[in-house]
Amino acid sequence: MVDFMADWCGPCKMMDKEVFSTGAFKEAVKGMLLAKVDVDLEKATAQRYNIEAMPTVKFLKSDGTVLHEF
Question: If pLDDT is split at 50, 70 and 90, which confidence band does 20 have?
């Protein structure tokens, strides 16, 4: 699971506080690798995955293929 975010993004901060830090979320993603990509620092990665708005969360296969996004 990759969370494409930015330090200045209010909704990104809300997701961290109200979703990603909860026990229910942590239980749901057991066994997944979780990554945060700051779109300002990793512009090439953000372009590769066509990130146009933050937050964008994508679920990827190990080869980088997108399985789902929101």
Answer: very high
